[in-house]
Amino acid sequence: MHTKILLKSYINATEKITLLFTGPLTDLAKALTVDPTITEHIERLVWMGGTFLSKGNVEEPEHDGTAEWNAFWDPEAVKTVFDTDIKIDMVALESTNQVPLTWDIRQAWANERQYTGVDFLGVSYAAVPPLTHFQTNSTYFSMGCLNYCLYGMPRPRETKDSHGISIYKRTKPRSNIYR
């Protein structure tokens, strides 16, 4: 079902589109398998997934703990998408650690409840208890925020690593957006 909707959206687009994926790349990979020419309609993909660290966020039996969840969930889809010529802006797991969901942020949202979107965020996260079952003083992270910011901004200063993966930096030389 999702594959058909994606294919129709891509093919009917009057100009190239930017995709934002905050989960596994399964639906995009399926759409590419059905019609590889859809890449002609895609400007770029902003994807929250993968990691450059030796420690990921997957704690599953018989797994070594090195994978990031969105890549772990469907590694074949990641390969399918990365094997295309789509420009990929990868927001890696370690970048999300720079955006902790602190009590101060929750309080700021509570103070801005007059805005529907902020109210929704605040109410949603109000029900989330402190995260203490994995490690003491651990916290949640606002993972999707980086993706939404990158999605909405023009491409910043860009370099490529040895694998051809884009690494972006803000206008200040010391400030990495991700990696």
UniProtKB/TrEMBL annotation:
<keyword id="KW-0378">Hydrolase</keyword>
<dbReference type="GO" id="GO:0008477">
    <property type="term" value="F:purine nucleosidase activity"/>
</dbReference>
<protein>
    <submittedName>
        <fullName>Inosine-uridine preferring nucleoside hydrolase</fullName>
        <ecNumber>3.2.-.-</ecNumber>
    </submittedName>
</protein>
<dbReference type="GO" id="GO:0006152">
    <property type="term" value="P:purine nucleoside catabolic process"/>
</dbReference>
<keyword id="KW-0326">Glycosidase</keyword>
<dbReference type="InterPro" id="IPR023186">
    <property type="entry name" value="IUNH"/>
</dbReference>
<dbReference type="Pfam" id="PF01156">
    <property type="entry name" value="IU_nuc_hydro"/>
</dbReference>
<dbReference type="InterPro" id="IPR036452">
    <property type="entry name" value="Ribo_hydro-like"/>
</dbReference>
<feature type="domain" description="Inosine/uridine-preferring nucleoside hydrolase">
    <location>
        <begin position="11"/>
        <end position="117"/>
    </location>
</feature>
<dbReference type="GO" id="GO:0005829">
    <property type="term" value="C:cytosol"/>
</dbReference>
<dbReference type="InterPro" id="IPR001910">
    <property type="entry name" value="Inosine/uridine_hydrolase_dom"/>
</dbReference>
